[in-house]
Amino acid sequence: MTAQRRTSTAKPGTSYDFVAIGGGSAGFNAARVAVSLGLKTAVIDGARELGGLCILRGCMPSKTLLYMAEVLHLAQKGRIFGLKIPTARADMKAIHARKKKIIAEFADYRVRALESGRFDLIHSDAEFVDAHTVRLANGRLVRSRHFLIGTGSKVSVPPIPGLAESRCWTSDEVLDLDFVPPSVIVLGGGIVACELAQFLNRIGSRVVLVQRSPNILRDHSPAASRVIQQAFVDEGIELFTGTELQAVTRDRRGFGVTFAHDGKVIRRRAAHLFNALGREPNTAGLGLAAAGVHLRPGGRIVTNRWQQTTVPHIYAAGDCAGPADIVHIAIQQGELAARHAAGVAKLKPVDYSLLLNVVFTDPQLATIGRLEAELDREGVTYLSASYPFNDHGKSILMDANYGYVKVIAEPKRGRILGAEIVGRDAGELIHAFSGPLAMKATVFDLLRAPWYHPTLAEIITYPLEEIAEKIAAS
Fold it and tell me: Over 90: is that where the pLDDT of 84 sits?
């Protein structure tokens, strides 16, 4: 596969204006912008395969598999729609082959872009020896006036007795399966854990999900999380929340996990164990201390609104900097850093009040802007209204009855502050708010727009109307 080629288009020892360490979403896009602004640029990436986490082991392979599992799930429930589908099961060899083909095409496109010659590509690990110099794996030195650190994240292994020694699966192994595991224990309740637990369950594995927090998807509202939890239980996933993990064991028969739950000690066994307890910034081995770059508690790199670290000519973007592990945020941050390094005037920092997030479970969970928990913490007054999918025509005929649409707005003029959707195609529907939020539109502005009947998107009008009525009555 092209993405596995090892290549270097520069002689180590060269000096640059801008060097991106990491060729993923942040680093690649920073380099692309830096070159367009006339900076002599290089990308240094020591990964075995070029392309970045999103393409190789994240967004694209996971969403490819999740969609195939959704098609399988719809086929298996065909009788609900009056369809006679005798059997529907996963052919994991074929699923795996299709995923590999699709990801190879994405990765090959990224590798061609990296090797295009617009900037130098150095295939090596790098470590800072001072604030303007990195040492490559072969000992050669590369100097630059500016650096961008975009090294992403890696799987975290919390100090649970037996976990590190168990050699269990991470998302890498789950995304590369070519067989149906008979049973899997999933540790964690974040986005990766939830998306892939449902995938495993739908292809035919017996799945136990063990989450430490009171709800899965703890970064989202409890109400939204409970919808996903109910869907999981209805599909047959054995779900434990509010647990304390005590020990992991492994023997010839598989894995055992012991945890406390509701005052009892519970033990579950499975053929396989999937550690999805989170990710951490991938900054070890970069020599950040030698460059004077500081880290936050938890390991993320300290940055200001221009993505500058504690050393002004060194920038950081993407998962290693935060605040969100989201591809479009990494791209925005990387591009901003390159423009700032080039001295572009009148820049604006990334606007996190427009933060967009999607969880690709079924039902999906999507949010944008400022939500109730944040506004409550800050003492900001607001109006909110919601409407359930199980009372909406299009979702009922699709048997898509889980969830709701919620809109949050400013109480006087009705300017939209945020939205939360948990339900069918929430990741698509949430974009109905992207433009209006960026343009500071009101609920009245959105209600002046046409909404076709019957569509899923039409459900958005009901909470908009409720808020408009509250404002008119005040």
Answer: yes
b/e string for 262-294 if b means 16 or more Cβ within 10 A? Answer: eeeeeebebebbbbbbbbbbbbeebbbeebebe
pLDDT in the model for residue 5: 41
Of 439, 356, 344, 426, nearest to 392 by C-alpha is 426
Of 204, 240, 7, give the one whose Cα is nearest residue 111.
Answer: 7
Distance CA 62, CA 99 (A): 9
User: Please, is 141 exposed, middle or buried when counting C-beta atoms within 10 Å of its C-beta (0-12, 13-18, 19+)?
Assistant: middle
For the sheet with 383-388, list strands across it.
356-359, 364-369, 416-423, 404-409, 383-388
d(CA 100, CA 249): 32
Domain ranges of the chain: 2-154+280-341, 164-277, 353-473
Say if residues 23 and 138 touch (Cβ distance below 8 Å): no
213 CB burial (10 A radius; 0-12, 13-18, 19+): middle
Q: Domain 2-154+280-341: state its class.
A: alpha beta
Structure tokens at 12: 């180590």
Q: Is 142 exposed, middle or buried (0-12, 13-18, 19+ CB in 10 A)?
A: buried
pLDDT score, position 55: 81
Sign, Cα dihedral of 232, 237, 242, 244: negative
- 164-277 maps to which CATH number? 3.50.50.60
Q: What is the pLDDT of residue 317?
A: 98
Determine the straight-line distance between the first and last CA of the chain, rounded to whole angstroms: 63
What's the token pair of residue 337? 């850093």
pLDDT, tens digit (0-9, with 9 covering 90-100), for 141-186: 999 999 999 999 999 999 999 999 999 999 999 999 999 999 999 9
pLDDT tens, residue by residue, 101-132: 999 888 888 888 888 888 999 999 999 999 99
